[in-house]
User: Fold these one by one.
Assistant:
Number 1:
Amino acid sequence: MATGTSHRAAPEHTHPDDVPVLTALAALADPVRVQLVRELAASEDWSRSCGTFDVPVGKAAKSHHFAVLRAAGLVEQRDEGPRRVNRLRREEFDARFPGLLELVLRGD
Amino acid sequence: MATGTSHRAAPEHTHPDDVPVLTALAALADPVRVQLVRELAASEDWSRSCGTFDVPVGKAAKSHHFAVLRAAGLVEQRDEGPRRVNRLRREEFDARFPGLLELVLRGD
DNA sequence: GCGAGTGTTCGATGAAAACCATACAGTCAC
DNA sequence: GTGACTGTATGGTTTTCATCGAACACTCGC
């Protein structure tokens, strides 16, 4: 086998270009996911693993929310040893849905 | 009693400025409501009563959806005789959530 | 007043989604 | 290998929301 050996299934990603508007809106219409996105936006790319996010739900639910964000083209994930680190797809998502991310990050 | 007599309760409106982001996103994360907003955007202000929108739900559900849109600051309503006519709050909503409405109207 | 037309409210139902606890699958250090 | 750690998958509960049918309220023309 080649180098970079990982026997774990790579997470499935969806590019923002392939995401319907309704999917993007539904993904962002949840307080927990918005909090994840905001924390992620305030961090360096690939600096945060899923477990480091402080949201008031169990880890199973957290994992589910990350899957939703991935499917909405908002988050990219990569395996780094035992943990899965994240990156907010700022530019790609912004190119597809101009202003939307900024709106969510701005807050109230 | 003064002129313009209406014994019907005026619909409660919420100004976009008082709408949380999550409420706005949740309101627009529904296919029926998006269709209503799009049809409304393609019509003149105050030209369409609730019944004239062609969505695949009964009138009870339709009434509910209009209430949600009102609460999200997206729609303004006024009673005109027996019917309730609508207006999309384009500028006010756009001032509060720049780009969001345009995003939804653009479609996919 | 009466009847037709329009829209809201109420109660109930069904579907979707969030959530948890548990069990499982990798990765790493030892 | 064993054990600690991290995240995913599964099964089941709870909550939320869209929907409908029926009843109600209001307006208007007759």
Number 2:
Amino acid sequence: MTRLSQYMLPTEKQAPADAEAISHKLMVRAGLIRQLGAGMWSWLPAGWRVHQRAVQIIREEMNGIGGQEMLLPLLQPAEPWRRSGRYAIDELFKLTDRKGADLVLAMTHEEAVTIHVAQSVRSYRDLPLILYQFQVKERDEPRPRAGVLRTREFVMKDSYSFDRDEHGLAESYQLHVGAYDRIMERTGLRWYRVEADVGMMGGLGAHEYMAPCPAGENEVVLAGGYAANIEVASATPQPVALLEDVPSPLSVSTPGLTSVADVAASLGVPEGALLKAYPVIVEDGSDRMVLVMLRGEHRVNEIKLASALGARSRPARAEEITQQIGPPGFIGPVGLDGRVEILLDEAVADGSYVAGANEPDTHLRGVRPGRDFPFQRADVRTVCEGDAIEGARVSIEPAIEIGNIFKLGLRYSEPLGANFLDEQGVQRPIWMGSYGIGPARIAAAAVEQYADEHGISWPRALAPFAVHLVALGKPGTPERAAADGVYDALAAAGVEVIYDDRDGNPGEKFADAELLGCPLRLTVGRRSLQSGEIEVQVRRGRQESAGLPLPGQDGDLAGMVDALWRTLP
RNA sequence: CGGGGCGUGGCGCAGCCUGGUAGCGCGCUGCCUUUGGGUGGCAGAGGUCCCCGGUUCGAGUCCGGGCGCCCCGACCA
């Protein structure tokens, strides 16, 4: 039933007041989604069609690499999560049944799938294996936002690969790279595959698939052929003019100047000639303080810092800084006598710098790493505009994470006992990978990337309908009869068409058509009867295209529509 | 978790400061009108003003508590 007079497509002229992101506003306005609660969204019929288009593309490509579709339960016993160590995660929804048993709502399905594989796989002959599903994920997100971009419940395609060794895992991973590349290509999105953080759980490698758009929550670093999430990106910094050398650091008075910008301006030196001190407490049980030193204009990257330290850390509190180093705002690396370990960022070149003196209202001029303080080195800063990678200038773009692929290794197979016997009869753990992709984010990213001031402009692979047919004139008129004929001819030929047969004005029909964003708009009105032609507008760019013949004349209307459709983005 | 904001017909908002008949635009229903870019008119329907408690003769408005939602940041295995 795709007559608009009977189809649930509640369009709105005004976006919800609290909507910020383009996709949030337009998907609500176009009648694709509605909110039920914070991070809880319903997909209305037209929206669900878009979602299912993405699902079908993913399914075809997963089947293409030998994936086997299945379904794992959302509601699960807590016990496997305790065994895998994930029961403690805050985002995990936990509940209790009437008997008092602890249950969880799965946020991904590694535990469940690994248990089944552990039960049924016994021999190397049973491997490799790729299993996948489309299933709802539940996550108690601290902050759901931007419509369907970040929700507490969402459908994910998650797949899991099982191999006999690391080499097999690399092959399964590579199969997923191919499938994911093809999925992205087929959706019509602009996308990047970027290097990603492997997380504290210590994976063996990971990539993310990113769709650049202003509403994106992630940042990708691009330079020539390089593409990485900013969380893991490394680059060469712009050179900076350092200070003249002096035999030993000189005290300079800097009353009240606690920021890098103030000190640099006051001394007339570039911010990069300052050493910024960022004290952190390492949360590995030792609670020891580490003083991270960076070039003045650079920022600490928490993820890179965590991998350098081997543990998470938190910024030190003011009283901790006072107690162990000196007055906040004037702390520096000189004269600590080994009380606090110093981690010097790799971007800090050899030379002479300004640094805090660990005395109130005082800095030191002419501080040289090594001569004036001992240090360990690590790359712990966030890449910034102006950096370069192999000579190519870095650019940084916001992006939505659409999918990610991850070499898990033995992370789940060991605690959950997923083993097999090799040819020698030796029991070995199964090497696993996990691979996720979010159809809802594909839909939202497409809205973000291609919308214009009139509404959504779907890539044809994702559009809810191929054709939006607009009938002008009152019901019962000859032009209406002609429009009905067009609808019947297209529908009979299998063209997916939404037919605006409502008793409305042309303006609102055109506006709704452009809001919904189907790639082709066909209009049948009085003019069509005079000219014998259906008018055609291509949504992308709102270009008028050559008219098509009304049914009953020479020519295969559906065939021509289909041919035109294939030329669209 | 830190900061900011908002809860009044389906949507967008005013009213609250200074307590006294609950309003506007859009949408919706009926009739007429109009029919190639959200037409115009007439007549209607629709609201426990988020919840609980308090103050008061009287609370959408003042006070207290709670809940919900949004935005920024943190977090995001």
Number 3:
Amino acid sequence: MTNIRDLAREAEVSVTTVSRVLNDHPYVAEDKRRAVRDAITKLGYIRNQTAVQLSTGQTKTIGVMLPYVDHPYHAAILHGIAQCAFEEGYRFLTWQTNYIASHEQTVLQALAQREVDGLIVVSHSLPVDEILRYEQYGPIVFCEHHEDVSSVYINHYTAFQSGLKTLQSFGHTQIGICLGRPDSTNSRARKQAYQDTVSPEDTSWIYQQALTIEDGADIARQWSNQSCRPSALLTASDHVAAGIILELRKQGYRIPEDLAVIGFDGSDLAVVLNLTTVAVPYETIGRQAFSIAISDNWRDHPQIEIPTALLSGLTAVEVKE
Amino acid sequence: MTNIRDLAREAEVSVTTVSRVLNDHPYVAEDKRRAVRDAITKLGYIRNQTAVQLSTGQTKTIGVMLPYVDHPYHAAILHGIAQCAFEEGYRFLTWQTNYIASHEQTVLQALAQREVDGLIVVSHSLPVDEILRYEQYGPIVFCEHHEDVSSVYINHYTAFQSGLKTLQSFGHTQIGICLGRPDSTNSRARKQAYQDTVSPEDTSWIYQQALTIEDGADIARQWSNQSCRPSALLTASDHVAAGIILELRKQGYRIPEDLAVIGFDGSDLAVVLNLTTVAVPYETIGRQAFSIAISDNWRDHPQIEIPTALLSGLTAVEVKE
DNA sequence: GCTTGCCGTGAAACGCGTTTCATAGTTTAC
DNA sequence: GTAAACTATGAAACGCGTTTCACGGCAAGC
């Protein structure tokens, strides 16, 4: 493997000059520049990126902590990160944590060990302040809202409220909700929006642990077994909504006549099912998070709220008298 | 930032001994080991991973080249890679290329510059032999079949054949297909299977450039405008199948009575639509590709064929007389 | 005519952990 | 009892590019 010292010898210049040529520094005479270029070609030199990283103290790499790379909305955030990273000449390392605390620790460790210049936390299970202890090693940007933390987020309270109000405007009074992980920040905000907006008569209309299509089917069965049912459901994700709709149709119920359903995410599934859904611009979240992670002002803990939009389908429509 | 030399001074040992303690080398006396450990705690030392990488010449990182991180089946492969990488103590860098040749070059460059120890090429647009020129710098594993190349793949010929034969066994004789990128290796194999299996009467039953839900809707419109139509369609992906089904239902056609449809991938969409589909274990492909990339025998160009399975739904059923 | 200031170049230090090699004291082996 | 085989330890080299600092030459400024 030829290195810059070999080049220097071949081109009869100093390593400094070689380095200057490599980095397009102006203070190099044209003939020496050419000599170095010729040496590069002749010896087939290729820069060792690791050495550059050690030398500059920068990896030009951002780490991404997320629970599952193949969940549609995490993947969409990743997409935004990938776009932005490429444009900025950065790379990114992805860690799939499955929400396992020890795996999340590994990611934080990587920041401390200077494997990455910064971290984007898409979703996590460790307490925020434990994660923030690692901010001394570099920027940490969250994709959900926390106080005094760099974050790019959607307002789950208002987003959920918009879904609930839509159902109300369609004439529904018996409204239930589905929540994902019960103790997550997002779920808490959503629950609060629910309590503030519809003042529910029955806590059995809050369906917990709603994450997958299968969870949706479970919830549909729960619903159909209840004596006192909601007439409308705001779900935690399009996947859950899909599970509910499919199971209920299988059981002979009609959507939205027997149960109006609103999804969350604005995914492909929503298009396919003609699902009314709260659309979230996940790609934008990824892009913004990335730009904070590589900006100089991350210490100011910038906070960016990304707006959501209600996307109308046919699973939640005006109630006919 | 304290380094290994500071530790050596503090613990009154040599840097070699410190390095030994850090790497759990056995030839260190217990008292010195403790002294080093104490120094680590006292000075708050954290290993600089970049220095380790430069020193060992290994990054313990694998690069992944794929067109889009948020396409379900690429994400599924990524999921497999992520799992395997974590288990093996590796990291992975993802490059989203959008099938742009210059972006793919960047990825190859990264291998040459020793940013990664190896490369997994999920899908690509550059010619294979151009990519293989970089094999001198490290293992390159493909997720599709090519001769004399490390690869983990599904046999698109037999996979497509199984779909076609299923349609035939259901009584269909007028069978069409959808293909994705016209010149890809996969499309060629699929087309061959089509020609060998159904000996099509009409080339207008091959629908090209079928990649997204929207493409599917386009194809549905094409189909409904044709005077001589196939009675069954084997599609390039579940997304395309979904687009076709939704558009045709909107136009008042019935699936499978007017058109039987089989998808490809075995994705969530298939579950939701009760779609008959050719299921592909993408996660397994990712895992296997990863293990080849970090194995010693990659120079032998191992080839692993992963089997597919037909998953029955309701969009392709026995033709009633 | 002399001081600034810019251009061009290189030696050496720096970032930091790993590894080779030499040395010396102990055991084990026969 | 002596050779062979461990165990334990450190100096120095290595991997490799960047950056600081010093210095000579030359042109512009007054």
